[in-house]
From TrEMBL, chain A:
It is found in: Cell projection, Ruffle membrane; Cytoplasm, Perinuclear region; Endoplasmic reticulum. This is Myotubularin-related protein 9. Residues 133-508 form the Myotubularin phosphatase domain. It comes from Mauremys mutica. Belongs to the protein-tyrosine phosphatase family. Non-receptor class myotubularin subfamily. The lineage of its organism: Eukaryota, Metazoa, Chordata, Craniata, Vertebrata. One of its GO terms (cellular component) is endoplasmic reticulum.
From TrEMBL, chain B:
PANTHER family: MYOTUBULARIN-RELATED, MYOTUBULARIN-RELATED PROTEIN 7. It comes from Mauremys mutica. The active site is at C338 (phosphocysteine intermediate). It is a peripheral membrane protein. This is Phosphatidylinositol-3-phosphatase. The lineage of its organism: Eukaryota, Metazoa, Chordata, Craniata, Vertebrata. Signal peptide: none annotated. GO terms for cellular component: cytoplasm; endomembrane system. Residues 126-504 form the Myotubularin phosphatase domain.
């Protein structure tokens, strides 16, 4: 995974003023300080000690760096590097000039403005690609699965050239009775052209979840009969559906002034609208910043910790999102009603809700492959703008409106459900942490770009490696496997009571507490289950052997 | 029975606290020991049993059109809300319960009528399960430095101490008696824990009666003797677990703390743990937060913070960590006291012992620890947990806090304890249940006078009998976490203390993880054991069979001989059946595990259900476990917090409307 950087650094040569510094001391929590040589390459910051085993101590992607600070005491410079994965490291670099050079190089290399200079375009995998992840989860495959249970839907290529909706993939699933011409018209009535498409089909009762963006009703109550025809096509005769608007009624009403709006009862008499406010944009980013600040603050006493946790509102957002997702799932499974989910643009809170509802409803989404398919379908192809949202993390000072831990919150919500149903998921916490890391900084191209259209233009599938190729390779898949997993075909209803929601320590306290004892417990758990499996195999083999011998015996007896 | 004005009320409704629209209709019974609610639903007849001794408060609320609501709060954190149709009936139930929940004589308590159908010998054996002499011997005393003293025989010196106490060898009876006169309630320094690896010890006492300037030679000699019992050490720590301000205030009343100038070679240290009144009100505040109906995240976190509960837990842990460090790392002896030396001192000594000695982290060892630091040293169970009607200001969740400290440690060291969370919850339950005699009264002296051991049963024997339910599957005797001293992290430690939902909201079924890792792993381990046995049988069978075949080939004609070998081959038939059985086993195995079930709702099996089955006595005889079942039956989905999620349309509409 880590080759492919040497010799390809010509593009970055001018950015690297000092490629190498000796006698640099690295400080990390819970590790002794290490002295070694610091090397800067086009994409990595590497510190290797001169220990006998020549072990590399640190290998950090520049794109993982969220912010850096420098300090000087005499001629000894100190650079504090804060990473998007929330880790903080400190480098002591002798020599003011070296230190300044290195700091400015890191700054430049960690904020490259061209996507094509990013590491995924240079990375060459060290593993054998068994299955190209870029082709693992095509919409055609999803549609095939759907076709085996219902014929009420069709795969439309109306967006083949990304001309109807720039943030949609070329192929989307829509009701069979609605033709492409109607879709084009509906697209003009929905924010960003995001007309309602199928998100999830509930096999148990044939109910569906659709997602879209807000309708462009404006202040004068503009309407679009194709739009109501499209969503009505998902309803059974005489049945009502639910529209879950992820904004408060107030916000939705205000949106009309800007040309947006919501579905009025008169125009959508078969639909019942529920406003379930979910926070968005930089408010979430500020929440993340506050939470991480509280987690890193070593000085506080017990009291201040709880009020800081509270003040960050992170868990409040978790509760809001999970509640809305439970509501959507409840409408589908318990009420036997179809659901349409949207907010404003339909690229953020909408996707949190639709993807979490699927985790609750659909056992397939709780498997490793199924979860990958979910991320691919409901986030990547659905046009969540990863590049904008994940440009910066908790240590950013930029305060840009588009930076927002929307996907991070989704992963945290999944972790909360996983914690409540520890035996129902094929993947473990490491898998979720890994996805968090890769969404923010990665050697893979999966999370580059903001939508399918951009990914096509960047030719990511030809020029970069897919994260799924790496996750799904045959070696050591067990790293992400939950040893407790037992396929559970049921709907799982999480609790969203405050007493049931917890801080995701595996991410937020990952770098400032030792996880030794918890890791040991995980290993112990693994051993218990592995030993059981081993015995089971042995017993089965013996039984077979005995059965064979007995037949032999019987044959001999009868002969 | 004379206190029961109303033995039976019909058409009572038991309210579901999560969704108040749902209620179970049934009949309420009052018995001499329990409140019982039986649902009308004929096929289930769900029962909710509540012990009178578990009732902490009863509140009669304003009558409404539907009836008269009665709110019962229990000491094990269960809350029961009943609606009784007639105001008069409600009043009678209320008056009866007020009296029944506050007995005036020990003889009224459940343990005197509780009969687990054991004979006399079994009962006596039960009481012998935990022996303190044995425990002190295990620690390594008596030895060259410590001896057992009979100075307190017949409780002559201190009536709240046990008759047998360990003191330094150089502390003569004269010194002990002298020192006892200089200590509150005569609770002189005595051995709590001895570390045989380095001779360091933990001693406990009450505060000295030092006032502003008083001294006592014998007390000074006593502390000197403790130091000498740890040869080579040149001082002992004296840890006063009170906030400094409280200790100083005590001086005005002729009490106080040790003056370092008067005692040669002590290092004095305050560790501010608040008093029982602060703790009582802190718990009260936390429970109020737990009682909030659908609180927001902010309500909950603010409430938790304002209660100060976790801060108090941390203070107790910090004191324990300080002492364990002094003993294990510095090899220094420590004398611990607070005011009377029976609350905070008990908490801190037992936390320190638990950190120091892996034995106390086993099921047996934990019983010994409670017996040693709490029961024998006169922790006032009766006053603190309100067994008999008494001063409400004496009530305080002192041992609850200790039990929570253990849970917090279990969270940080998942492999270090032989027992699981359920063990702690059941102990907490029985501290209040008065079903067993162990904790009755305020001291050993009172218990002996009451002849507790002849008239009641021991909890420890009961728990020991069911120990399979209390095992932590991750515990291994040879695991590194089970060796030596536990060293909890202290760096961002405040982040590591968590709200213990499994205890304080244990009856809010829907709030807990729906699948129990502990139960799952225990089931796996059980299956593993069966597999091991089967493997052995199969290997033997295989060897036999090979021998038979060999013989068959050799002596195919010898019918007689062949028949002798038929022995094993008949049992081969049973083996041939085994795979079938086993496959059944395999099938049934997941159904034992938490995640499986025939229908959806059974996926949401809770730890509490297992809790119920794990303690047959508990469920058979009564109390809240059936309550859990009961609540569960009324919220078949296991309670998505969305109140409406599991039934009728109407309720869903309502939820949406509140949106």
């Amino acid at each position: 995974m880590r080759n492919g950087c040497a010799g390809r650094n010509m593009e970055f040569a001018e950015l690297i003023k000092t490629p190498r510094a000796d006698n640099v001391v690295l400080h990390r929590p819970f590790y002794p300080a290490v002295e070694g040589t610091l090397c800067l390459t086009g994409h990595h910051l590497i510190l290797s000690s001169r220990r006998q085993d020549n072990a590399e101590e640190l290998w950090l992607l520049h794109s993982n760096i969220d912010s850096i600070e420098k300090r000087f005491v005499g001629s000894l410079g100190t650079i504090i590097i804060k990473c998007k994965d929330l880790r903080i490291i400190q480098l002591d670099i002798p020599g003011m000039e070296e230190c300044l050079n290195i700091a400015s190089s890191i700054e430049a290399l960690s904020t490259l403005d061209s996507v094509t200079l990013m590491y995924p375009f240079f990375y060459r995998p060290m593993f054998e690609v068994v299955e190209d992840g870029w082709h693992s989860f095509l919409p055609e495959r999803e549609f095939e699965l759907l076709s085996s249970v219902t014929n009420e839907w069709r795969l439309s290529y109306v967006n083949k050239e990304f001309s109807v909706c720039p943030s949609y993939p070329p192929a989307v699933i829509v009701p069979k009775s609605i033709d492409d011409e109607a879709l084009r018209r509906v697209a003009t009535f929905r924010h960003g052209g995001r007309f309602p498409v199928l998100s999830y089909y509930h096999k148990k009762n044939g109910m569906v979840m659709m997602r879209s963006s807000q309708p462009l009703t404006g202040t004068n109550g503009r309407r679009c009969k194709e739009d109501s025809a499209l969503i009505n096509a998902t309803l059974r005769a005489g049945k009502r559906g639910y529209i879950i608007d992820t904004r408060s009624l107030n916000v939705a009403q205000q949106a009309r002034a800007k040309g947006g709006g919501f579905e009025q009862e008169v125009q959508y008499p078969q639909w019942r609208r529920i406003h379930k406010s979910v926070e968005r944009y930089n408010i979430l980013q500020e929440s993340l910043i506050k939470l991480v600040e509280a987690c890193n603050d070593q000085s506080h006493n017990m009291d201040r910790w709880l009020s800081k946790l509270e003040a960050s509102n992170w868990l409040t957002h978790i509760k809001e999102i999970l509640t809305a997702a439970c509501l959507a799932a409840q409408c589908i499974d318990r009420e036997g009603a179809s659901v349409l989910v949207h907010g404003t643009e339909g690229t953020d809170s909408t996707l949190q809700i639709t993807s979490l509802a699927q985790i609750i409803l659909d056992p397939r989404c709780r498997t490793i492959r199924g979860f990958e398919a979910l991320v691919e379908r409901e986030w990547l192809q659905a046009g969540h703008p990863f590049q904008l949202r994940c440009a910066q993390s908790a240590y950013s000072n930029s305060k840009q409106k588009w930076e927002s831990p929307v996907f991070f919150l989704f992963l945290d919500c999944v972790w909360q459900i996983l914690r409540q149903f520890p035996c129902s998921f094929e993947f473990n916490e490491h898998f979720l942490v890994m996805l968090f890391e890769h969404a923010y900084a990665s050697e893979f191209g999966t999370f580059l770009g903001n939508n399918e259209s951009e990914r096509c233009k960047l030719k990511l599938s030809q020029k970069t490696m897919s994260l799924w190729s790496w996750v799904n390779r045959h070696q050591e898949p067990s790293k992400f496997k939950n040893p407790l997993f037992e396929a559970n075909s049921l709907v799982i209803w999480p609790s969203v009571a405050p007493q049931s929601l917890q801080l995701w320590e595996g991410v937020f306290l990952r770098w400032n507490r030792s996880s030794k004892f918890l890791d040991e417990a995980y290993e112990e758990m693994n051993n218990i289950i592995e030993y059981n499996k081993e015995l089971q195999a042995k017993v089965n083999a013996l039984r077979r052997q005995l059965a064979e011998l007995e037949t032999d015996d019987g044959m001999q007896e009868s002969s | 029975m004379e206190h029961i004005r109303m033995p039976k009320v019909e058409n009572v409704r038991l309210i579901d606290r999560i969704s108040s629209r749902k209620a179970a209709l049934g009949t309420l019974y009052l018995t001499a020991t329990h409140v019982i609610f039986v649902e009308n639903v004929s096929e289930t007849r769900k029962e909710t049993w509540i012990l009178h001794s578990q009732i902490s408060s009863i509140e009669k609320q304003a009558t409404t059109v539907t009836g008269c609501p009665l709110l019962i709060r229990c000491k094990n954190f269960q809350i029961i809300q009943l609606i009784i149709p007639q105001e008069r009936d409600c009043h009678d139930v209320y008056i009866s319960l007020i009296r029944l929940a506050r007995p005036v004589k020990y003889e009224e308590l459940y343990c005197f009528s509780f009969n687990p159908k054991l004979d006399k010998e079994e009962r006596e054996q039960g009481w012998k399960l935990v022996g303190l002499n044995e425990e002190y011997n295990r620690m390594g005393v008596p030895n060259n430095y410590w001896q057992i003293s009979d100075v307190n025989r017949d409780y002559q010196v201190c009536d709240s101490y046990p008759t047998e106490v360990y003191v330094p060898k150089s502390a003569t009876a004269h010194i002990i008696v002298g020192s006892s006169k200089f200590r509150s309630r005569r609770r002189f320094p005595a051995l709590s824990y001895y570390c045989k690896d380095n001779n360091a010890s933990i001693c406990r006492s009450s505060q000295p009666l030092s006032g502003f300037s008083a001294r006592c030679l014998e007390d000074e000699q006593m502390l000197q003797a403790i130091r000498k019992a740890n040869p080579g050490s040149n001082f002992i720590y004296v840890v006063d677990t009170r906030p400094k301000l409280n200790a100083m205030a005590n001086r005005a009343a002729g009490k106080g703390y040790e003056n370092e100038d008067n005692y040669s070679n002590i290092k004095f240290q305050f560790i501010g743990i608040e008093n029982i009144h602060v703790m009582r009100s802190s718990l009260q505040k936390m429970l109020e937060v737990c009682e909030l109906k659908s609180p927001s995240m902010s309500d909950f976190l603010w409430g938790l913070e304002n209660s100060g509960w976790l801060k108090h837990i941390k203070a107790i842990m910090d004191a324990g960590i300080f002492i364990a460090k002094a003993v294990a790392e510095e090899g220094m002896s420590v004398l611990v006291h607070c005011s009377d030396g029976w609350d905070r001192t008990a908490q801190v000594c037992s936390v320190a012992s638990l950190l120091l000695d892996p034995f106390y982290r086993t099921i047996k060892g934990f019983m010994v620890l409670i017996e040693k630091d709490w029961v024998s040293f006169g922790h006032k169970f009766n006053h603190r947990y309100g067994y008999l009607d008494g001063d409400p200001k004496e009530i305080s969740p002192v041992i609850d806090q200790f039990i929570e400290c253990v849970w917090q440690l279990m969270e940080q060291f998942p492999c270090a304890f032989e027992f699981n969370e359920r063990f702690l919850i059941h102990i907490q339950h029985h501290i209040y249940s008065c079903q067993f005699g162990n904790f009755l009264c305020n001291s050993q002296k009172e218990r002996r006078e009451l002849k507790i051991q002849e008239r009641t049963y021991s909890l420890w024997a009961h728990l020991w009998k069911n120990r399979a339910d209390y095992m932590n599957p991750l515990y291994r005797e040879d695991h590194s976490q089970t060796q030596g001293t536990l060293r909890p992290q202290t760096a961002p430690c405040n982040l590591l203390y968590k709200f213990w939902s499994g205890m304080y909201t244990r009856f809010e079924k829907g709030m807990h993880p729906r699948q129990s890792v502990t139960d799952y792993l225990m089931a796996v381990k059980e299956e593993t054991q069966q597999l091991e046995e089967e493997l052995e049988v199969l290997e033997q069978r295989l060897a036999d069979l090979k021998k038979v075949q060999l013989n068959n080939r050799k002596e195919n004609s010898k019918q007689q001989d062949h028949n002798t070998h038929l022995g094993p081959s008949t049992s081969n038939n049973s083996i041939a059946n085994t795979p079938q059985d086993y496959i059944n086993n395999v099938k049934s195995f997941p159904s034992r595990s938490p995640s499986q079930g025939d229908e959806e709702d059974s996926a949401l099996i809770l730890t509490q259900d297992n809790l119920k089955s794990s303690d047959p006595d508990l469920s058979a005889n009564s109390d809240q476990e059936s309550g859990v079942e009961d609540l569960g039956c009324r919220s078949p989905s296991g309670g998505c917090c969305l109140p409406s999620e599991d039934s009728g349309k109407d309720s869903d509409e309502a939820v949406f409307l509140t949106v």
